[in-house]
Design goal:
The protein starts with 11 loop residues before the first helix and ends with a helix. The chain is rod-shaped, with a radius of gyration of 37 Å. The longest helix is centred in the first third of the chain and has 47 residues, at 12-58. α2 runs parallel beside α4 (103-111). Helices cover 65% and strands 0% of the residues. It has two domains: 11-58; 61-159, no CATH class. The chain has helices spanning 12-58, 61-73, 81-84, 103-111, 117-121, 125-134, 141-144, 147-159. It is mostly helical.
């Protein structure tokens, strides 16, 4: 009774081709829209990353130094100032006269409240190691460059003591 084969209809092949082409076009449109959405999302991520890179670049050297100096000054209370001695910025010596101390290391020492040759001259080996640790410096460099000995000489030259 129902022996009708749909493939034997006169326009069945054409209907199959129309459905195949229609589904192909529909699949292409859906894929294209999905790809465009992905592209927009990735472009947004690229813009956000570019903004972050610009923020990093605008973070100037001075700001980076300020961050380091704040981190160091927060640890100044770890030093034994009863042995080293206290000094003020007004009575500061030019610590750059010591071989091995440049402008930035002088700033680091000042952030630790070390301002004078006398304070460095009063340091022990343990103090030097602790200072090197706090100012994020090579542990043996203070001793190797003899900052303490140089500070003693400069203190004696300056104050005749």
């Amino acid at each position: 009774m129902f022996e009708m084969n749909p493939h034997q209809l006169p326009d069945a092949v054409m209907q199959h081709w129309i459905m195949l082409i229609g589904s192909g076009i529909l699949g292409f449109i859906i894929g294209y829209m999905a790809r465009q959405a992905t592209i927009r999302q990735l472009e947004g991520q690229i813009e956000a990353t570019k903004s972050q890179v610009e923020d990093c670049r605008s973070f100037s050297q001075a700001q980076q130094e300020d961050v380091v100096l704040q981190r160091i000054s927060s640890r100044a209370n770890e030093l034994n100032f009863t042995r080293i001695g206290l000094a003020t910025r007004e009575k500061a010596d030019d610590l750059k006269e010591i071989n091995g101390i440049g402008p930035f290391f002088e700033k680091k020492l000042h952030s630790l409240r070390i301002y004078t040759f006398r304070q460095l001259a009063n340091c022990t080996t343990e103090d030097a190691e602790q200072i090197a640790n706090i100012i994020e410096f090579f542990p043996d460099r203070i001793e190797r460059e003899d900052w303490i000995g140089q500070a003693k000489k400069l203190y004696h030259q300056k104050y005749g003591v």
